[in-house]
Each structure stands twice: as structure tokens, then as C-alpha cells.
Amino acid sequence: MSELIEEMPQGQLVYRRLLDEIRTGQMAPGARLREVELAERLGHSRTPVREAIRLLEMDGLVVHQPRQGATIRLLDYAEVMELYEMRAVLEGTAARLASRAANEAELRQLAELNTEFAAAPDERAAAELNRQFHAMLLEAARNRFLARSMRGLQKTMLLLGPTTLMETDRVARAAEEHRQLIDALLDRDGASAEASMRAHMEAAQMVRLRKLRRIERPLED
């Protein structure tokens, strides 16, 4: 038991590393998780790697396939649609609640984050600032049950791979969508805030679907 306790911090470290690789697309859906290869590549023993895979399985990010073992879960088209639909519901609700509960400092912070987001030097920086923007909005909603539901959804969203912000002009368009949301929050207009967020989610969904169609389009001679 003491040996297991000693390995737990390393297991969490490997878990976070694998989550980041899934988020950035370094480990794509369908990829096999071989304990020996991961242990060698990440510089850990097989015990923390095994623990990390178990945690990913608990998150629903890893499944066991016949004759393949542990693999990164592959979402089908319907699941992608359902994910974005649920995200629109949850984040739209967060926007509506934040219009009522957010304080002035939080609204200023949202505006500042969006300014930095619009001027981000690259997609990775933009993605991090976008994450902070949505996290701040969720915090401003002041609803712990909503936050818990959103955290669970965000784990599954990792299976979508690299951010849609990598698409041409998406950062500029997303920044404008953020600004419309901020204007509704400043006006304390809950209905407009929710509608703005839902429109923002639908725009991201359309970019994702176009990307999926490009991937699935058969190669032509």
C-alpha cells in the first residue's frame, strides 16, 4: 500500500501529461496506449502509466478494444453534435446567470482577457486565453452544480482534438462574438447574454463540422 501511495503523485503527473497530449492532438482518437512505450517515452515506470490510463478510462476518454487494448476513444458524428448541443446549453446558462451575478471586476477582467485573446501571437496562446475567458465566465455564474457539469463535459471535449481557433480568421471572429457577449453582460441582459453565447457555440460547432468533413472526405486521384 505504501508503494502505491508513493506512486500516486507520478500517476497524476502522467495523467496530466496525457490529457495535454490528447488536448493538443499529439495523441489522436483511436491511438493505442501501450504501457511499455509510454513509460519509456515519458520517463516513468509502468505503475504510474497504468494508473494514468485507469484515470483516463474513468473520465471516459479511454476504452479497451478487442485485440488492441487501451485506446483513446473515438467520437462519432452524433456524439460530436451532442457535445456541442450540451455545451451551448451549459455555457448559455452560465452567460445568463453571469449577467445577474458577475461583479464589475469580473466584467472588466473578461473584457481584458478578450483584448489579449484578439491580439494573441499564436493559436496556442489564443487557446489558453480563450480557456481563461470561459472559465472566468463560468466562475461569474456562481453556480457550483453548473460548474461541475461543465468540468465533466470539458473532459470529453478533449477528444475533439486541436482547437478550432487554428482555423483561418477564427480568433478574430471569436473575439467579436466575445465582445457581443460582454456588451450583453454589461447591460445585465440575461436573455441577450444567453443568445450571444449560444451563437458563439454554434459558430464553433460549424467550424468543427467543416474540419470533420475535410478529414473524412475521400482522397481523389
Automatic annotation (TrEMBL):
The keyword DNA-binding applies. Keywords: DNA-binding, Transcription, Transcription regulation. Pfam families: FCD, GntR. PROSITE patterns: HTH_GNTR (PS50949). Residues 8-75 form the HTH gntR-type domain. Transmembrane segments: none annotated. The keyword NADP does not apply. It comes from the Bacteria. This is GntR family transcriptional regulator. It comes from Paracoccus aurantius. The lineage of its organism: Bacteria, Pseudomonadati, Pseudomonadota, Alphaproteobacteria, Rhodobacterales.
